[in-house]
Design brief:
This protein is α/β, with parallel strands linked by helices and 418 residues long. The protein folds into two domains: 144 residues, Beta Barrel (Lyase, Ornithine Decarboxylase, Chain A, domain 1), CATH 2.40.37.10; 202 residues, Alanine racemase (TIM Barrel, Alpha-Beta Barrel). The chain is 30% helix and 22% strand. It contains twelve helices and 17 strands. Helix 4 packs parallel to helix 5 and helix 8 packs parallel to helix 9. The longest helix is centred in the middle third of the chain and has 22 residues. The termini are far apart. The protein binds pyridoxal-5'-phosphate. The site of pyridoxal-5'-phosphate has 18 residues, from loops.
Amino acid sequence: MKHIPFDKAFIEGVVQDHPTPFHIYDEKAIREHARRFHAAFDWVPAGGFRNFYAVKALPNPHILSLLREEGMGFDCSSYTELVLMEKLGVRGEDIIFTSNDTAAYEYAKAKELGAIINLDDLTHVDYLDRHVGMPDLICMRYNPGPLKEGNVIIGNPEEAKYGFTREQLFEGYARARELGATRFGLHTMVASNELNPDYFVETAQILFDLVVELHQRLGIRIEFVNLGGGIGIPYRPEQVAVDYDRVSRGIRAAYDSTIRPAGLDPLRIVTENGRVVTGPYGWLVTRVQHTKDIYKRYLGLDGNMAHLMRPGMYGAYHHMTILGKEEVAPTETYDVTGSLCENNDKFAIDRQLPPAEIGDFLVIHDTGAHGHSMGFNYNGKTRSAELLLRPDRTVKLIRRAETVEDVLQTILWDGLDT
Ligand SMILES: *Cc1c(COP(=O)(O)O)cnc(C)c1O
């Protein structure tokens, strides 16, 4: 059974102040995981291992702030995320800017903040130099193409839009050096929601080999490798979390057999995971609003796809628990829906659940990453509030729910007869 850090009585108390639907995040569990994650790689030399949290997964400054306290840096993918960093007072090499199809103004912001810029394409070496100047430290994103199999969410690397080809990397680093860069990083990201630990070891080996070859062919010394994000989480009760110790041992063996003999030690190792850092520690709490019995049976929630898009967008599985019925047998089969005028607004299809009634609290698991942040306003739907469950068991509102006024505020009413 999947863990939930609250029960029905607790949520009955919470809804006195904060009506459903809302996402709620468990601070204690997020902190404990962050410590465990960093500790698993404590052998990494030169300042050690560090995860740069992928801000897009849960861009709430209250969450970012506690991750910062746990020693994480931040991986930003857009101008807005960089502005969020600025507002939080995060600067410099605590930020990696990994973007694609990037505009000059975004690079300018990244450079102004002193962020590590991670280029997505060979043409961006000159583009960056022309528009904002080549920084001292530059990182490049490798797309291993046929060397590596991708997975469902991110696709096959050969068909993915990201990164440089292998040969382009040699040209890219040489050119960046010509333009004045003196410090270099190497990045790749080829998986998303991957649960196989060996996958991350293979990725590290591919990058380590490249670090050696870049040194041999260009005399360039890579300072850090960024293994990207993509560590998966057990969305399904029968799945198992990635064993960090196993990944760490595998990467260490690759480091010892590849980096050390080449005399390229110390090399820093970083990642930019989002999902695994907060995903399992968030829940979307909804209520059953209607039940419906036609050709199939439906539970209509007070939440919808604007609050959690993953099931509707790519059929992702999110586990569900009805509070107070944790021990009741799942004898019923339902499609669990939201209210959007889109038939894919379903949190689950043919899900086995205990008999549900109107008013039941239905909790959707693992919404702490790529949950609230993927929300949108189609059909005039408003995004939900976000709550933080503090270690002292109090609940803090960390983002209010959107209102209709929020959704309508960009409309220019002038000149309309109203
Ligand atoms: C989305 C993304 C991440 C984070 O992915 P997770 O699955 O949340 O770990 C990291 N890096 C890049 C470049 C991304 O696009």
